[in-house]
Write a structure and sequence with these properties.
Length: 67
């Protein structure tokens, strides 16, 4: 196993830990609520897009999780 492979595996494990912490401590929701219409754009890669908005950004709201 080469050094590049070990580095890649470490980077993947690290990003998984960051995502776990974010998901555990924050609430992620659509900016306009759960009824927001999302469609897929057809370009080189399929990406989500909010209906009626320009670009491929999906506006969201992030707030701390309160137990």
């Amino acid at each position: 196993m080469g050094r590049g492979r070990v580095g890649k595996l470490f980077a993947v494990a690290e990003i998984k830990m960051v995502l776990l912490i974010v998901i555990k401590n924050f609430v992620l929701e659509m900016r306009d609520g759960p009824d927001t219409k999302v469609e897929m754009t057809r370009r080189i890669k399929m990406r989500p897009k909010v209906s009626g908005e320009d670009g491929i950004k999906v506006p969201s709201r992030v707030r701390p999780y309160k137990s």
